[in-house]
Amino acid sequence: MTSAITMQQAPKIWGISLWILLALGFLAGVGYLDYVASTELIFACFYLVPVAIVAWYAGRKPGFVMAAVGAAVCLAADIAPGGHSAHMAIACWNSSLLLGFLLAFVVLLSSLRLLQENQKKFSRNDTVTTAINSRYFYELLQAEIERAKRYNSHFTLIYIDLDDFKKVNEAFGHKEGDSALWHCVVTITGVLRKTDTTGRLGGDEFGCLLPETGYAAAESVIARLRTALENEMLAHTWSTTFSMGAVTFSKPPDTSDDAIRMADSLMDAVKKAGKNGVEHKVFV
C-alpha cells in the first residue's frame, strides 16, 4: 500500500524539516566554537538549544537522534587536533555525560509538549462524545465563513437534535445516555468526510460543518446521516429519532451566530411539525 502526503500534512512536514535544518546549523556552529574556544569557556549548555528545537517540534525520537549527534560533535571537538582533552578516555567520558544529560532533557521536554497538546485537545473536545465542543465549533464555523467570503465558495451547516432523548436517560440511565451520544458522534463521523467537522452544541444537539458542499451534495449527506443514525439507534433499542435543520450557504452569513441561528430555527420547525424530519434550505 503506497502512502501519500496530504495537502494538510505537507506544511507540517516542511515546517519540521526547517526546524531540524536550523538545529543542525546551530549545532555545527556550537561545535566549531567549542573547538576553537579555550578550555575556560564552557559550551556544553549550548548543545541544549538544537536538541530542544528538535525535541519540541519534531518529537522524542528525532530529539534522541539530535542528542546523539550533539554528543558526537562535542566528542569530535575534544579529540580533533588542537582539541581540549588530553586523553581519549576523558573526551569519551565527557561526551557520555553530555549524552545522558541531553537524552534526559529530551524526555522531559517531549513529555511537556505532549502534556500541552493533550490539554489543548481536551480544551477543544467534549469529554463524553469526543466531538469538538461548541466554543471551538463556533470558531471553525467563523473561519469557514471568512474563507467562503474570500473565495466566494459555499458550505452547508446541519443542526441535529435527538428527539425525546430524555426517555433514553430515564429508561436506561445517564451512563447509557452518554453511550448513545457517543455512538451518534461515531456514526456521524463515519458518514462525513475528513474535511467535515462535527461538534456538540448542547446536551443532545450536534452541528455538522460541510465545507465546499452545495445543496444537492448536502441532500445526499443528510439522507445517509438519517439512515445511519436510525439504524444505530435501532441496533441498541434506543427509542430516539432525529430532527435536522440544514442551511446551504451560497452567500455566507456575517457571523457564526447567524449561521447557527438559521439552522437551529429550521430544526425547531421540524420539532413543531412532529419531529423526526429534515428542513433544508439555501441561503442566497
Structure in words:
With 284 residues, the protein is an alpha+beta fold. It has 2 domains: 9-124, no CATH class; 134-283, Alpha-Beta Plaits (2-Layer Sandwich). 62% of the residues lie in helices and 12% in strands. It has 9 helices and 5 strands; from the N terminus they run αααααβααββαβαβ. The protein has helices at residues 9-36, 48-57, 60-79, 88-124, 134-151, 165-172, 174-191, 215-235, 256-272, and strands at residues 155-163, 197-200, 205-211, 241-249, 278-283. Strands 2-3-1-4-5 form a 5-stranded mixed sheet, sandwiched between helices. The radius of gyration is 28 Å and the shape is elongated. Residues 1-9 have low confidence and may be disordered.
Task: Pick out the low-confidence regions.
Answer: 1-9
How many beta-strand elements? 5
Q: Please report the distance between the alpha carbons of the first and last residues.
A: 44 Å
Helical fraction equals 55-70%
CATH architecture of the largest domain: 2-Layer Sandwich
